[in-house]
Design goal:
The chain is of the alpha/beta class and about 120 residues long. A hairpin with a 3-residue loop joins strand 2 and strand 3. Helices cover about 45% and strands about 20% of the residues. The longest helix is centred in the first third of the chain and has 32 residues.
């Protein structure tokens, strides 16, 4: 192989390596962004609940309070976010979670085969 061809091969190899490494970095950034590790767009964690199950969640002075709210507030704090509580019908909690209207549900909810099939974590 001539000296010129060897040099061209070496340069091509380095360009390919840099492009490959760049694509890996872009894919890693996309994965981390989707998982919320980097670039989180919101500083608020939205919890959905049906505030009628004292002492876990109930309304006191026009505010939803209780054990589940305190627990969700600590979860939000550990994520570096503020907590927003959405009081809604119990029947609408899982559909609101599915649609992205809320980020989490904290309510007296039991495991059923249908809920387990839909990958709801309890």
């Amino acid at each position: 192989m001539s000296k010129n061809k060897t040099r061209t091969f070496g340069i091509s190899w380095w360009i390919g390596l840099v492009l490959f490494a760049g694509m890996i970095c872009l894919m890693l950034g996309d994965i981390l962004h989707r998982d919320g590790v980097i670039g989180s767009k919101t500083a608020v964690l939205v919890m959905g609940t049906d505030a009628g199950f004292k002492p876990f969640e109930y309304i006191d002075n026009n505010q939803v309070v209780g054990f589940d709210v305190d627990l969700a507030r600590e979860i939000a704090k550990s994520l570096g976010k503020d907590l927003k509580v959405e009081d809604m019908s119990f029947d609408g909690l899982l559909s609101a979670l599915d649609s992205g209207q809320i980020d989490m549900v904290a309510a007296g909810m039991t495991v059923t085969p249908e809920r387990a099939k839909n990958c709801v974590v309890f």
